[in-house]
Design goal:
eight-stranded mixed β-sheet; two-stranded antiparallel ribbon; 34% helix; Rossmann fold
């Protein structure tokens, strides 16, 4: 059986709709909690897939949250091994930082559902399976595109929404994994942020309701396409 390790920062920001897909593809899924588990003592190198999930802190907040040092070390190790790596929101920002790219505040929150605009590279990537289906955005920082990476997508508010490195690294600013049927967990857990940003939870709830079927299907198609590429990459003798 293949193994997937997911590093999370909040209990409710989990693998979402990606988890049952991984299980169906023969992965045993294990979570590590970045703030409480001793990441430096865990063997993540042997995992077939490493996923770094989202969270409400910054990629350069290691002076405040020292565990980020250990996360970055794991990500660097993973990048050097050229083994499959997926980053979502904060996870994508940490990958960008590990590759020498900047991560900065946008000066505005991007919270809500909106479709991605794909670059030509994005049109040839697994993200093309999304079509025009809106995905969940929930962030105030953005990453620069690292040297050697392909920019895949953007939105009107945030030009850099996704990048990839060959077939084994995918970084997503948006929450493609988020299950719209579980939006209430996000609304409650981020209630203060929503109020401070002037975001209407009623509107978010209504948007999520309309996407209960189409978004999980589109996300599954995109993740399946990426995992197919990962399998092909690994079958060619990649690490």
């Amino acid at each position: 059986m293949k193994t997937a390790i997911a590093i999370r920062h909040l209990d409710f920001e989990d693998l979402g709709t990606l988890e049952p897909l991984l299980v169906a593809r023969g992965y045993a899924v294990r979570y590590l909690d970045a703030s409480t588990d001793e990441l430096g003592t865990v063997d993540t190198a042997s995992a077939d897939l490493l996923v770094v999930l989202g969270g409400p802190i910054g990629a350069f907040d290691d002076a405040i949250y020292p565990f980020i040092h250990d996360e970055l070390a794991l990500i660097l190790q993973r990048l050097e091994s050229r083994r499959p790596l997926l980053g979502i929101c904060l996870g994508a920002q940490l990958i960008a930082r590990a590759l020498g790219a900047g991560v900065v505040s946008m000066g505005v929150k991007e919270i809500g559902f909106a479709p991605l605009t794909l670059t030509p590279e994005g049109e040839a990537s697994p993200l093309t399976a999304l079509g025009k289906v809106p995905v969940l955005h929930w962030h105030g920082d953005r990453f620069d595109i690292p040297p050697g990476a392909a920019q895949l997508a953007g939105t009107a508010i945030c030009a850099n929404q996704a990048f990839s490195i060959e077939s084994h690294v995918l970084a997503l600013q948006c929450h493609l994994e988020a299950d719209p049927r579980q939006i209430e967990r996000w609304l409650v857990s981020h209630a203060c942020e929503l109020m401070q940003a002037g975001i209407n939870p009623y509107a978010l709830r209504a948007e999520a309701q309309t996407l209960q079927t189409s978004l999980p299907l589109a996300a599954r198609a995109a993740f399946n396409a990426w995992l197919d590429g990962v399998d092909a990459y690994s079958s060619k003798g990649a690490p």
